[in-house]
Amino acid sequence: MRLVPAAALCLAAALTGCGARVEPAGDAASATAVTLTNCGRKVTYDKVPERVVTNDVGITELMFALGLEDRMAGYAMPDDKGDLTGVPWKDAYREVRWLSKDQLTQENVLDVRADLVLAGWGYGFREDGGLTPDALEKLGIPSYVLTESCRNGRTTTSRGIMPPLDALYADLTNLGRLFGVEERAAKLIAGFREQVAGVRARAPQGAGRPKVFLYDSGRDQPFTSGRYAAPQQIITEAGGVNVMEDAADSWTTVGWESVVARDPDVIVVCDYGDVGAEQKKRFLLSYAPLRDVSAVRHRRIFVLDYADLVESPRNPAAIARLGAYLRTVAGKR
Predict the structure, then answer these.
(1) Which ranges in the chain belong to alpha helices (H)?
(2) 18-29 as b/e: b if 16+ CB within 10 A
(3) What confidence tens digit (pLDDT) does each residue in 241-288 have?
(4) Residues 172, 176, 177, 181: what is their CA dihedral angle, to the nearest 10 degrees?
(5) Which of 6, 119, 195, 218 could pair covalently with 55 via S-S, beta carbons 3.0-4.6 A apart?
(6) Could you tell me which residues come within 8 angstroms of residue 272 by beta carbon, excluding any fewer than 6 positions away?
(7) Tens-digit pLDDT profile for residues 121-158
(8) DSSP single-letter state for residue 94
């Protein structure tokens, strides 16, 4: 289950000591160190990590997509994130140790002698469980914060500092530099850009763009995507309009009345967790306040997997699949 963090500072930032440090103004990094910009701060890593621990499926697959499974000590991920046997990295999943089917903990990290924790606010990092970059820094363990999850200071919980695909490309670029696989990262990014551009070239334009609502979960109030989570650009590049794009946050809660008022043509369901896609679809189609919403009246509900909809190397393929569907919707309107 995705957790929305409860409070506090943005940051990868407080990475100092034993492997990583915030770079003071004017300091020159050593020849072997790598300085990256993460969540708006310069962070210097003193060595190439060899025992990385990741949290959640999208973050884990960033490492796999770069061919870095041999640099991993393990990952934490609930077993409700979809079937992994058909993904391009199924062999990597078999090779790397599955540390926890719950949230990552300090104990997990210490047990495997991790020398880098790759996670995000709401994707492993949380104050209530004691797993934060600050807490890890006190243990001498560096961190890298998923860019989609960077806190932005608009509120104590708001996340996202750049467009979602830019966040994906920033993390691939940074990890490529840190691990010395820059060419591999650049090739991945170029392929993703080409794939997305191909979908964009065929996408509906102007008034023909279907309005889309992303439904993650929630009955009393829906959990959805604002403009800084991956669904924003997945929807936009596919040829739709995210009806919640005015929400200056990544993943956030809204009211059903705002969904009804914006009358989406399509609802995209995020498939994960104990309540599966079919149950979510049945709820949406039977929920009385939504009965006059266009997507419900025309039964236009499209399902994407959790890993498609968080920052991950699956995002471009998700754009292609949703784009094909939105073209059929636009053609019938």
Answers:
(1) 57-65, 90-95, 106-111, 133-138, 164-179, 182-202, 230-238, 256-262, 277-286, 294-297, 306-309, 315-332
(2) bbbbbbeeeeee
(3) 999 999 999 999 999 999 999 999 999 999 998 899 999 999 999 999
(4) -160
(5) 119
(6) 80, 81, 82, 305, 306
(7) 999 999 888 899 999 999 999 999 999 999 998 888 89
(8) H
In single-letter form, the type of residue at position 116 comes to L
For 118-129, give one letter per residue: b (16+ CB within 10 A) or e.
bbbbbbbbbeee
Using only C-alpha atoms, what is the Rg of the chain?
20
Q: How far apart are the first and last CA of the chain?
A: 36
- pLDDT per residue as tens digits for the range 277-296: 999 999 999 999 999 999 99
pLDDT band at 332 (very low <50, low <70, confident <90, very high): confident
Rounded to 5°, angle at Cα 192 from 96 and 69: 10
Virtual CA dihedral for 323, 325, 326, 327, nearest 10 degrees?
A: 90
3-state helix, strand, coil in the chain (%, to 5): 40, 20, 40
